Amino acid sequence: MSPSGTPRSPGGGRHLLGLRRQPGRLAIAIFRLPLKAYQHNAGPAVGRTFLAFTHVGRRTGRSHQSVAMVLRHDEASGEAVICAGWGPQTDWYRNLRAEPATQVQLGGRTFTPQQRFLTEEEAIDVAVQFRGEHPRRMRLISTVLGWGNLRDDVPLREFVRTHPFVAFRPTEPPAPRQAPPGSER
């Protein structure tokens, strides 16, 4: 056990998985795969499932990059909503509370974001919509991460109360999509 009373791995560091309360080494490695894709200019391969964002450390002042699953993306405004899956003590979330994100990458697009923190009702709306549109993904991540049965409304509302949601919107609206040449008939 660590001084804080949390169990430690035999090597004395973080647990290998550590998925329930905080990410372990393996979880961090897996969840950073989309970030590696963005860092190697493969954002379009990730699509709009994950976004990468740059934020400033609240104590160090250094830039950090994080990645999160997109729970909602509004094509018209370009706004993308993410959730702090390990709660309000997540470092990137605490950094965003201190200073807004400086850059967001979503698919093949990079932009300077306007950032906002969703109200509980807005977050519930996002979570319910995500659950309806992606039931298998919701079941998988809630099982793997130990979030309980988010298919029911009561646990979903409790999850939203304890896990902050953040929205990023481009400071400039997305350019309208151009029709491919020869498709105007």
Low-confidence stretches: 1-12, 14-19
Please indicate the percent range of residues in DSSP E strands (runs of 2 or more): 15-25%
CATH superfamily of the domain at 25-119 and 163-170: Electron Transport, Fmn-binding Protein, Chain A
How much helical structure, as a percent, in the residues?
A: 25-40%
Please tally the β strands and state the result: 8
| CATH level-two architecture of the domain at 25-119 and 163-170 | Roll
Strands ordered across the widest β-sheet? 2-1-5-6
The global form is globular
Termini Cα gap: 69 Å
Sheet having the most strands: 4 strands, antiparallel
CATH top level of the domain at 25-119 and 163-170?
A: Mainly Beta
- What is the overall number of helices? 7
Mean pLDDT: 83
Order of helices and strands: HHHEEEEHEEEHHHE
Could you give a quick summary of the protein structure above?
The chain has 185 residues and is α+β, with helices and mostly antiparallel strands.
Can you walk me through this structure?
This protein has helices spanning 25-31, 33-39, 43-46, 91-98, 120-133, 135-144, 153-162; strands at 50-56, 63-69, 72-73, 80-83, 103-106, 109-111, 113-117, 165-170. The chain starts with 24 loop residues before the first helix and ends in a 15-residue tail after the last strand. β1 (50-56) and β2 form a beta hairpin. It has 185 residues and is an alpha+beta fold. It has seven helices and eight strands. α5 packs across α6 (135-144). The strands form two sheets. A four-stranded antiparallel sheet has the order 2-1-5-6. Strands 3-4-8-7 form a four-stranded antiparallel sheet.
